[in-house]
Amino acid sequence: MALTPKAFAELVTFTRASPASYYGSDGLLKTAASGASRLNYNPATLAPRGILVEELRANLLLQSNAFTVSPWAATVSGTSTRADVAGTLGFTLAQVTATSASGGLRQSVGSLTSAAVYTVSFYLESTTPQVIFQLENGLAAYGTNTSVTITPSTGATSGQVGFSSVTSSPLGSGRVYQCILPAAGGSLLANLEWRIVNNGGVIYVGRPQLELGAVATSFIVTTTAQVTRAADVMQMSSLSPWFTSTAGTFYVEYDYADP
């Protein structure tokens, strides 16, 4: 059987009605324009992950790439200072310094859909011994204080209350955390907080995202309003008879030269 060489663009049609982020071959967060496919890479190992295809999602947190403006504020139970600093991974970091015990960073969230699963994801880097991530004053279905204690230097977590799952993966000098909120019986209204246990402790927080769904997706930059990333739609064109979206299809691209 003879093989017919074709470029990727000849095999598929791809659409997405909004810009979207991805990690490039240099490990930095980048933005693809509307309608442009995303060849995603592992930001830690730089290994290619292939074309990134995601469903429609919205980031429900505001000002997700700027932390000195409203609605970001110090925690309810402590005081802190904060500054925006240029991260080395392609997104802005909040440099948060506790000026009292339990000082840190928060944003109020509310009016979430009842009986729905939400995921919170964020980057965290710090040398301070412990950081408590929590949804303070959540509904009873989440517990009075949905929280987890993080040891940033190792990524270890303990004291998990209310979250159905907390996982992390290394990225740069820190880690990306994914915290899943189980379905609750009513709307959630709470303060999403990073609390620094020790006075004087410093943390760096970046790419925070709260989204409806049981898994975190690519980072969505927001400003004064929530932002929705459109779904990626990728379809085979001329070779559709052998393509199946349910069972999967292998695609190989290579260079060949006669000996």
What does this protein structure show overall?
- The chain has 259 residues and is mostly beta strands.
- The chain contains one helix and 19 strands.
- It has a six-stranded antiparallel β-sheet with strand order 7-8-17-10-15-14, with no helix packed on it. The chain has a five-stranded antiparallel β-sheet with strand order 9-16-11-12-13, with no helix packed on it.
- It is elongated.
- Strand 11 (131-136) and strand 12 form a beta hairpin.
- The longest helix is centred in the N-terminal third of the chain and has 4 residues, at 8-11.
Write down the overall mean pLDDT.
87
Number of strands: 19
The helix content, as a percent range, equals under 10%
Strand content: 35-45%
Shape by Cα distribution: elongated
How large, in whole angstroms, is the Cα Rg? 21 Å
Q: In DSSP terms, counting alpha (H) and pi (I) runs of 4 or more, how many helices?
A: 1
Q: What about the largest sheet?
A: 6 strands, antiparallel
Which strands sit side by side, in order, in the main sheet? Answer: 7-8-17-10-15-14
* Low-confidence parts: 139-144
Which structural class matches the secondary elements? mainly beta
